[in-house]
Amino acid sequence: MRITIEGASEEFERKLLDLLAEHRDELAVSVDTAWDADRAMVFLNTLNEDARLFVRLVVESDGHLEAAVLREAFPHGLRGPTVALTYALKRGVKHGWWPEGTEAPVTVVYGGGPQDGWRQASAYEMSGEDLPVFRAALAHYDAAPRPPWSVEAPSAFAVPPGWAADDDVPRALDDDPSAAPNFPDRAPR
């Protein structure tokens, strides 16, 4: 039997937990830690561009990609994207987006080498069950409209708003009340 309860009151939750505790010897409780499309989309949305590209490359290689290929794609190293993947997984548990015990969608494969110390990754993999889920999530991510960046970043040498070219503090902090911004909910100085 599978029971899913959403939006229950605290009283109902307490009564249900009491009932489960009363019959704990008769029940086996398990938590669904499998990746589904919603979890995969949330995961992808929380990643930075490099980490998302890392996942995409593993998915596009049918779930197995040699680390040497990834090292060419990320000349500054794999540490940044792999750490971002780890933090995204932990962040999801912390925020309740997926339960604790959810496996990382991309895992490292170690080849031969020194068994006593540091070993370099030889490949990265995604399980066969997770592959179609992340393929679909990436397709949906690509199709989702994103507003274009239409504003050019201001020059670092531009005078900040609220400052005059020769000011050393913003005019809002000036002693002259006429120079202060008009805040309707505050009394004049």
SSE inventory with pairings:
Elements: H1 10-22, H2 37-45, H3 49-60, E1 64-66, H4 67-73, H5 79-95, E2 107-110, E3 121-125, H6 130-143
Antiparallel strand pairs: 1-3, 2-3
What's this, in brief?
This protein is mainly alpha-helical and 189 residues long.
Can you walk through the features of this model?
With 189 residues, the chain is mainly α. 38% of the residues lie in helices and 6% in strands. The chain has helices spanning 10-22, 37-45, 49-60, 67-73, 79-95, 130-143; strands at residues 64-66, 107-110, 121-125. Helix 2 packs across helix 6 and helix 3 packs across helix 5. The radius of gyration is 26 Å and the shape is extended.
Write a concise keyword list for the protein shown above:
mainly alpha; single chain; 6 helices; 3 strands; 189 residues; three-stranded antiparallel sheet
Outline:
extended
Order of the strands making up the biggest sheet: 1-3-2
Query: What is the terminal-to-terminal distance?
Result: 68 Å
Helix content estimate: 25-40%
Mean pLDDT across all residues, rounded? 81
* Percent of residues in beta strands: 5-15%
| Largest beta-sheet characterization | 3 strands, antiparallel
Please tell me how large the radius of gyration is.
Answer: 26 Å
* SSE series: HHHEHHEEH
Total beta strand runs:
3
Q: Indicate the low-confidence ranges by residue numbers.
A: none
Q: Structural class from helices and strands? A: mainly alpha
**DSSP helix count?**
6
